[in-house]
Every structure is written in C-alpha cells, then in structure tokens.
C-alpha cells in the first residue's frame, strides 16, 4: 500500500443519505448586496502595498475621482470617497450640510430612508417621516403638498432612496424633484443610490439632486468597504456653515487642492481602490447604458418567473404597482409558504443564498438580488433552484417560472443578435 493509499483509507467517509446535499460546487450569492464580485476585481485587490504619497496609487486615485462624476451623471457634483459602508456616506452627507436642530423630511418607501432618518435623529436633527402607501413608491403629490405646508421653510433637506432593497420599490426621483420645485421649496434634495447606482438610470444633474450617496458593494461590483458622496453646488455651499461638520467627514478638508492624503482623511484604502479602478473599467467597457439595459432584461426575467409562480395565498411580488418595481432586487411574498424553510433548502442543500426579509415582511418573504456582475445563466440558475425547492417542498405554484423567465430572456437575446456573427436559426 502506498502512502497515498494509506492517507485515503484513513479519511472519514461521509455516510450516504437519502436526500444528498447538492451544494458542492461554487456557492452562489443572490442577495441584494454584497453582489457577486468579478474575478477581475478580486484579482486586482491582490496587490502589494505601494507608496501612498506619490506615484501609481495617487494616479489611480485621481483617475477614479475624475471618473466617478460620470457614473452619477453629473458635471457639477464633487465626488468624495469614504472608507465605510453606505451608512458612513449617510453620515457624511448629513454632517456636511446640516446643523443640530435642523429639520429633515424623510420619504419612506421601505426600510432604508427611515434608517437614514434614524441616524439623523441621533445627531440632533429633527426628523419627520412621510410614509408611502403600503407596498408602493413615494407619492410625489404628497411630497409637494407637505412642502407647500412648510411656509417657513423649516425643512432643510428631503431624504429618499432611489431603490429600497427591503421593499424592492423604485422611486421616481425626477418626479420627486419636480414636486419640490413646484412647491417652491429650497430644501436640499438628497438621494440614496446605494442599491441603484450602476444598475438603473440615475441623472444627478438632470434630476436636480443636491447630494447623491452610494456604496461599493452592489452595482459597482466591489467588496463592502467604500462609500461615496457626490455634492452638488448647493450642498457645497451649505457645507460652509454646517454646524455638524467633523474632522473625519469634512468635505472642505477632503477637497483641499494638492492634498491627496486628505482625500481619505489618512491612509487610502489601497486594495479597494485597485478593485474600484478595475470595476469602473469593466463598466466603461460594457457602457453604462448597456449596463442599465442588462439589468432591466434580467429583472424582467425575474418578475416573469415570480408572476407565473404566483397563486392566491402563495407567491406574490411585494410591490403592487409594476412601474414601481426595481431592476436591482425583487422582494417576494410567500403567503402560506414557509420562507425560512425555502431559504434553508436553497442554501443548505443547493448552495444558493437568498436575501432575508425585513419587517413588516420578516418570516414571510425572501429577496432575489439581481444587481451587478450577472448574466442569464446566473439568473436562470437562481430561478431554477428556487423553483426546484418550491416543488420539493410541495409548495403551491402556478406554473414554471423558469420557462417564463427563459421566454423573457429569449426576447432580449433575439433583439441582441448581431448580423453576421450568430449561427443561422434552426429550421426543422
């Protein structure tokens, strides 16, 4: 017997089971952030630590800062990078524009705008929440009505998310801006694009957004650890008198001419900057509008699947108005189906992690993330696994959602054919 034979014979052997786990391959994460990180981005992070004061790192950093405005579609917004998650960018936006005792209007459409408001309240800001209709987006008319009532202009800022990853609502940012303008109100307009930037259309300048907030771990395809603020002219003006400014977040210090080290208030996030540079290159190679179109096509496939699965008292898309459903994440209500068991079957036996649900849907919903570095095989694999788990659980479904998703994707594949590059169609 050889040494290798001895080692093999000494290893414990797993007992065969009647229902073997099928998860032993590459585990797939289908939550709404962190999203799947491209291999190119992961490889870029494996870099030696450089000189942080001059040379290649500084050049890379400046190239990123020069390119970030185009991602938010702004020529006037000043970009800032924070070494944090998105909550750090929330705080950066608030501290640089507001003072203790100021009032903000939070436009609720799920969980995360409210969370931003909760952070503001801890900082000594007065917070008013305008609730959306259940399972609906923010109503611009309601925003206009409330701001018209604020004749003394006590409200200093309006806070909203473009996509709420808890509810999967997508808010109409241009319409909300119009509501603020129609009300003749001077409040700063701050938009959280953490779940939307690099996924769906966003136009900071055209839509009149004063502060845009984003994070690295979703549409930008970089691991968690970076967040961003784009500050428009009105926000930069407010920064001059903001009483909540702190040494770490201060936009004025971070934008000092010729002081690269201060852009990060200290040592730059070396590996994350390498990852971000690669991710921005990938977005540029695909084209930002093409990125949006890809997300829209994959989201249509997901929604087509969920619609076919739907049954009374069973599967249902959370957002009731189709035009308000996001192209980055879909929240799926499960009715009488045990959502926790469905997620456990997918993760523990099939190697697919689905997103948990937040209140008020906790325990009776799951979320499918379809953002970032994704293509049809990945989406169809996710949907096929969910469908298999539902069938295996004996859950009621209306039909094959996978077939519906494939049909949806087929329409986009057909539209994308380039003459002269594809095989002839099959004619039996």
TrEMBL record:
Substrate binds at residue 367. GO terms for molecular function: alanine-glyoxylate transaminase activity; L-serine-pyruvate transaminase activity. The keyword Transferase applies. Residues 90-351 form the Aminotransferase class V domain. GO terms for biological process: glycine biosynthetic process, by transamination of glyoxylate. The modification N6-(pyridoxal phosphate)lysine is found at residue 218. Keywords: Aminotransferase, Pyridoxal phosphate, Transferase. Pfam families: Aminotran_5. Its cofactor is pyridoxal 5'-phosphate. PANTHER family: ALANINE--GLYOXYLATE AMINOTRANSFERASE, AMINOTRANSFERASE CLASS V. Belongs to the class-V pyridoxal-phosphate-dependent aminotransferase family. This is Aminotransferase class V-fold PLP-dependent enzyme. It comes from Thermohalobaculum xanthum.
